[in-house]
Amino acid sequence: MYKIVIAACLLLLWLDMPVQANVMVTLTPASGQVNIGQTVGVAIDISGLDSSVALSSYDLSLGFDPALLHFDSAVFGDPVSGDQLDLAGLGVNFPSATEGAGLINLIQFSLDSSADLLNLQMDQFTLATNSRYFKLP
After folding, report:
1. Angle 132-93-77 (CA atoms, 0-180°, nearest 5)?
2. Mean of the pLDDT values across residues 68-79?
3. Quick one: which of 10, 16, 32, 72 is 20 to 30 A from 90 by CA?
C-alpha cells in the first residue's frame, strides 16, 4: 500500500511539471516600399512546433497606429500548406478577426484530434495574414 501511495504522488508531481517548448510567434511585414493607399500584408508566423508540441488554438491581439494604418481583412492559414488548424479541411472552426481602436484580435481553434495535430501539423507555418491600407497622417 505504501508503494502505491508514493507512486501516485510521484505521478501527480510529474503531471504537474511545466512543459518546455521553444515556440516562437513572429510578424513578417511585406518588404519594399509601400505608398499611401496601397495595401500591405503582415504575416503572423509560428515556429518551434514538433511531434511533442502542437498548436490547437490561439487568441492573439495585434496593436497598430490607426492614424497611419487601416485594417482591411485577415486570411487564416498558410498560403502554401493550408490551414494547419483545420487539417481535416472541414472548414467549421470559424476563425475570427475583429478590429477595435488600434487593435486587431485574431481567434482560431482546431477541431482536429490531438493525435492528428501532433502527427500532421507542420513545425512552422503562417497562422494568418492581415491586410492593411496606409493612410495619410
Report:
1. 40
2. 88
3. 72
Q: Phi and psi (nearest 5°) for 55?
A: -100, 125
Task: Name the amino acid, one letter, at 62.
Answer: L
Alpha-carbon distance of 93 to 128, in angstroms, equals: 14
Specify whether the CB–CB gap between 117 and 110 falls below 8 A: yes
End-to-end, the C-alpha distance of the chain in Å comes to 74
Q: Which residue has the higher pLDDT, 60 or 12?
A: 60
Tell me how far apart the alpha carbons of residues 16 and 19 are, in angstroms, rounded to a whole number: 9
Q: pLDDT of 88-113, one tens digit each?
A: 988 888 899 999 888 999 999 999 99
Verdict on whether the full-model pTM lies above 0.85:
no
Reported in sequence order, the residue ranges of 30-88 that DSSP labels E, i.e. its strands, are 39-47, 57-63, 69-76
38 burial via Cβ count (<10 Å: 0-12, 13-18, 19+): exposed
DSSP, res 123: S
Q: Which grid cell sits at 92?
A: 467549421
CA-nearest of 72, 73, 43 to 133 is 72
